[in-house]
């Protein structure tokens, strides 16, 4: 996170002191570095330069239009999992020819909309889905380019809630039945088989699962070609992790990942699609809150901040670790804090027994590596407004999502008397 540093004892994002942003929009808020997002995208492009590669940003990681647009301007495609994400990608300027549509439960409406846009490909998760795509393509007079998502039964060694490549997971076609699925696809109208897809999980910090999965897919691709299918593209999914905890995590670089791609798939002569999300934006974003109270119990000191689990769900949902920093270096003695939010849940806890310089009410608190699966998973639980998002570029910043008013939130509801 080279864009995030202290200058004159104050936390800065690129060239902007964080306090300046807090004064403008209030806390809590998310803040992103444009330079960091672009640098991480460029890492993938450089690493995969020996391939005809398309880097598709996994929109589920961060769906703010400003983030998608700056990546699209750099040449990125998009990996989407809903009609809403597809519409976001198109609105941000991603060409339909660079959009791949994943997800286990595409509805007929979503399939038809994607066909009308003429997206690059559907990553098909089941034979019933394939049949729906075929029927929709025939109705609309379109041809759907498809790649089956193959479940290679590889344990990614990640959190059980974000593991997607084991046989017990809901995702993809079992490897053992994949050749029959491709044979069925070849006989259906409106379907053009173009490749193979896989995605074994998220926050993967060991290259061995990738190597095992890619080796299986390379073997399958050769068998499918021998069966007469055109396999011109391999979609490798996303999943490359980041270093949330510098003391314990050791995430590989994009270049090291590309070496595995070269070793396992380099001889196939296929186009390559990769779908990074977290590794593009996680370290490019922070969540900023303010200290409300310091509360002393018989056993602990609680640092109560105005950000909450509804703003950032990962610590509560995944027990995830995030580095936490103070907004200024005050030279005070370090204190062990439990850092918690205001929501009426014990799970509204960001860190336990975390050592920070002594804080006081009004001080800024920064939760780092929060650019992925932060704002997109937020809710209005406890009728707390969704927090603003800010993008920094050099010594300037802009608010790229405003905080909604209470009236606008409550106004979404209709009483019995007012409802149609």
What are the defining features of this structure?
globular, 2 domains, 420 residues, 8-stranded parallel beta barrel, TIM Barrel, 12 helices, single chain, 25% strand, alpha/beta, 21 strands, 9-stranded mixed β-sheet, Lyase, Ornithine Decarboxylase, Chain A, domain 1
Explain what you see.
The protein contains 12 helices and 21 strands. With about 425 residues, the chain is α/β, with parallel strands linked by helices. The chain has 2 domains: about 160 residues, Lyase, Ornithine Decarboxylase, Chain A, domain 1 (Beta Barrel), CATH 2.40.37.10; about 170 residues, Alanine racemase (TIM Barrel). Strand 12, helix 9 and strand 13 form a beta-alpha-beta unit. Helix 2 runs parallel beside helix 9, helix 5 packs across helix 6 and helix 8 packs parallel to helix 9. The model has no long low-confidence stretch (mean pLDDT about 95).
Describe the secondary-structure layout.
Elements: E1 4-7, E2 10-13, E3 16-17, H1 18-25, E4 29-33, H2 34-47, E5 53-58, H3 65-73, E6 77-80, H4 83-91, E7 99-101, H5 108-117, E8 121-124, H6 127-140, E9 144-151, E10 173-174, H7 178-186, E11 191-197, H8 207-226, E12 233-235, H9 254-265, E13 271-274, H10 278-281, E14 285-296, E15 301-305, H11 314-318, E16 324-326, E17 334-340, E18 349-357, E19 364-367, E20 389-393, E21 396-401, H12 406-410
């Amino acid at each position: 996170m080279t864009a995030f540093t202290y200058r004159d004892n104050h936390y800065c994002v690129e060239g902007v002191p964080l306090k300046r942003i807090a004064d403008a929009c209030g806390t809590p808020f998310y803040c992103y570095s444009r330079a960091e997002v672009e640098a991480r995208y460029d890492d993938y492009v450089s690493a995969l330069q020996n391939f005809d590669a398309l880097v598709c940003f996994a929109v589920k990681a961060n769906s703010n239009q400003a983030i998608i647009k700056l990546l699209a301007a750099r040449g990125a495609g998009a990996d989407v999992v809903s009609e809403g994400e597809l519409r976001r990608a198109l609105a941000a300027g991603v060409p339909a020819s660079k959009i791949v549509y994943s997800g286990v439960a595409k509805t007929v409406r979503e399939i038809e909309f994607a066909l009308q846009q003429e997206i690059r490909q559907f990553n098909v998760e089941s034979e019933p889905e394939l049949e729906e795509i075929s029927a929709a393509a025939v109705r609309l007079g379109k041809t759907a380019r498809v790649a089956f998502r193959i479940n290679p039964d590889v344990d990614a060694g990640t959190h059980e809630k974000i593991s997607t490549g084991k046989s017990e997971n809901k995702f993809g076609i079992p490897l053992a039945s994949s050749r029959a699925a491709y044979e069925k696809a070849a006989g259906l109208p409106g379907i053009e088989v173009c490749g193979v897809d896989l995605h074994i999980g998220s926050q993967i910090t060991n290259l061995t699962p990738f190597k095992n999965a890619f080796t299986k897919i390379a073997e399958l691709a050769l068998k499918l070609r021998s069966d007469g299918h055109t396999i011109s593209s391999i979609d490798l999914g996303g999943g490359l992790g980041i270093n949330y905890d510098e003391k314990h995590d050791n995430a590989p670089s994009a270049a090291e990942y590309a070496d595995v791609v070269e070793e396992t798939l380099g001889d196939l002569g296929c186009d390559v699609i990769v779908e990074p999300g977290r590794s593009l934006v996680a370290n490019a974003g922070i969540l900023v809150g303010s200290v409300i109270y310091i509360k002393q119990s018989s056993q602990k000191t609680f640092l109560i901040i105005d950000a909450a689990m509804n703003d950032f769900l990962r610590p509560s949902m995944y027990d995830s670790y995030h580095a936490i920093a103070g907004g200024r270096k005050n030279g005070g003695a370090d204190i062990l804090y439990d850092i918690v939010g205001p929501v009426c849940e014990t799970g509204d806890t960001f860190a336990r027994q975390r050592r920070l310089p002594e804080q006081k009410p009004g001080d800024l608190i920064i939760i780092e590596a929060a650019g992925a699966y932060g704002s997109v998973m937020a809710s209005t639980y406890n009728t707390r407004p969704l927090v603003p998002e800010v993008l920094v570029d050099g010594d300037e910043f802009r608010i790229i999502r405003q905080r909604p008013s209470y009236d606008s939130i409550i106004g979404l509801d209709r009483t019995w008397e007012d409802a149609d």
